[in-house]
Amino acid sequence: MKRIILSITCLVFAMLIHAQDITGAWNGKLSVQGMKLRIVFHVSKTDAGYSATMDSPDQGAKGIPMTAASFENNVLKLAHSAARITYTGTFDGKAEIKGEFEQAGMKFLMDLSRNEVVAEKTKRPQEPVKPFPYNSEEVSFKNMKDSLTLSGTFTYPNGNGKYPVVVLVSGSGPQNRDEELMGHKPFLVLSDFLTRNGIAVLRYDDRGCFASTGDFKTALTQDFAKDASAAVDYLKTRNEINPQKIGLIGHSEGGMIAPMVAAGRNDLNFIVLMAGPGIPGDKILMLQSELISRANGTKEADIAEAKEINASIYNAIFKIQNTDSLQKEIKKIMFDKVAKKPEYKENTEAMIKGQVDQITTPWMLNFIKYNPAPTLQKVKCGVLALNGSLDLQVPADVNLKAIEAALKIGGNKQFETKKMEGLNHLFQECKTGSPSEYAAIDQTLSPAFLNEILRWIKTR
Hints:
Elements: E1 24-32, E2 35-46, E3 49-56, E4 61-65, E5 68-72, E6 75-80, E7 85-91, E8 96-103, E9 106-109, E10 112-113, E11 135-143, E12 148-156, E13 163-169, H1 186-196, E14 200-204, H2 221-235, E15 241-251, H3 254-264, E16 270-274, H4 281-295, H5 300-319, H6 323-337, H7 348-359, H8 362-369, H9 373-376, E17 382-388, H10 396-409, E18 415-420, H11 447-459
Parallel strand pairs: 13-14, 13-15, 15-16, 16-17, 17-18
Antiparallel strand pairs: 1-2, 2-3, 3-4, 5-6, 6-7, 7-8, 8-9, 8-10, 11-12, 12-14
């Protein structure tokens, strides 16, 4: 559950007598809770008026379609309904827009210009620097079931031993082998730590991303599970590893994928669930929306209204199988609940269509309906489930309780669950757990978290 990106294009623009050209890239810097986030709006002219997309380079997002855009009397207005983002600014007729960015009731002054905003240099003290005291190979392997090739990095200790090995499985969204997001490379830090401690690691780019082939956009969580299983098959061809000591470590959505793989094969020694879900997807999204909104200062009345709307949408998803009929029903829900609000006067149809399209993608529908409990009940290998106490995306208490209950029902006695105090969804030491903190924290992974994984794997 993650887990926003950058493309700067400065366009030559012409000044007209009675109107100015607002199209092109506009760059700004948002000051939020002590950190600076770059924002880029790309404004385009259409037959119907204007459209826009948003990049947030420091949060790893690019091309987010705004659901409303207008430019009248030199005032630019942009909105993204689902994220509850609005931007209103006045164009000076030259190269600057002075305005205000608002999200979930919180307002921040933010001016835009044609000039690229240079990223502030981040501190990531845990990232390893070459030369490494172990072997590191660029590798590729086949997923024969889906006829694609996955590319990654295999690290293993020096020497001639037969080492225990883990496959790292990333969370949602297109991820590279380092699970890079918001200036952090969690899987690079994790693989370096484990390999330095005698454990081999395979990490790889998601299908259709970076050096891996395939189509990411059409893939479901179950398809990513086939990729992870192919990684296990590849490891069994390597002479450096102990085939009796193979494990998976999955983060977030990867924590759903690891049990899928383990339930379908009997040659895994263990799996580790980093913020892995234990409850159904619709319930996770409801909790996630509520907790993050509250942490960001959203009014309780607005949180309650959002819960009501989301509940209606999810109920429709479970009842209506035909996609066209489902889209019509969700549009009706949103028109009834949202479209009458004054902030959605402009481009209401386009705003609702954009949100409906996002909700009804095959991946999202599959995630909303998926209940991990039946799969967890089939897992017979060792399981370590870790969640941060301040995780607002996959809340610790309810998910750890559900994971434990499912494993017990299945008769698994080789498991351990642990809530790690003061850690967020990325397993960083934090203050609130809000995703808005992720990029501002220098630490990539808590040492306590790293040592907990190492301790448990060694007991295997």
